[in-house]
Specification:
Elements (H helix, E strand, L loop, with lengths): L4 H7 L4 E4 L17 H8 L4 H13 L9 H6 L10 E5 L8 E7 L8 E3 L4 E2 L2 E8 L2 E4 L2 E3 L5 H5 L4 H7 L6 E7 L10
Parallel strand pairs: 1-3
Antiparallel strand pairs: 2-9, 3-4, 3-5, 6-7, 6-9, 7-8
């Protein structure tokens, strides 16, 4: 077991779970390549995973957890990533400002392996409506330019990868879940 039930309850007290993908999905042109979403999330939140979180939180507070339990995750970790991920985009409309989430990744195959909590619970600072419709992207109901799409950069992608991720121009409706106060799309 990667985390004991007591540690999960303590770290996930009233938090929802957001699981980040470590690789691009099978339908994406970059299928199987690393997204580095974990590293980009940590960079945006000024977390040195090995120093600030992994060893103090997981190892000291849970002596039964060994580094080998997370070996694939540790070996794939790239501390050289400089880009930041300050939000994620999810379908539906279940998030609100002030909610907290437990950031996680799968230890192996998605939905078929245990989850690794890779950072402390994180508070949602801003929410934006996000929609793909009529061959356009809308943020809070306002059309956004593709080539200058800050939403892609803030999500840890370039605009072509963002469009492919959401199978543009296929319709999509959801939320931008932002854990930074610094993001502004000029459409509040």
């Amino acid at each position: 077991m990667l985390l004991s039930a007591a540690v999960l309850r303590k770290s996930n007290n009233m938090s929802k779970v957001i699981t980040f993908s470590r690789v691009f999905p099978a339908y994406h042109p970059r299928a199987g390549q690393r997204t580095y979403f974990v590293e980009k999330f940590l960079k945006a939140n000024n977390i040195n995973w090995f120093k600030d979180y992994y060893f103090p939180m997981l190892c000291q507070n849970n002596p039964k957890l060994k580094a080998s339990d997370c070996s694939d995750f540790i070996q794939s970790f790239n501390d050289g990533i400089r880009e930041k991920k300050v939000h994620t985009i999810r379908n539906g409309n279940r998030w609100k400002v002030g909610d907290k989430f437990s950031p996680r990744v799968w230890s192996g195959n998605p939905y078929q392996s245990k989850q690794i909590v890779f950072a402390p619970d994180t508070e949602i600072k801003q929410i934006f409506d996000f929609e793909i419709a009529n061959n356009e992207i809308y943020i809070n109901g306002q059309s956004s330019s593709f080539e200058n799409l800050d939403v892609a950069i803030n999500d840890g992608l370039d605009y072509k990868d963002l469009l492919a991720w959401f199978k543009f121009p296929k319709p999509f409706k959801g939320q931008i879940i932002c854990w930074s106060d610094a993001v502004s799309y000029g459409c509040r």
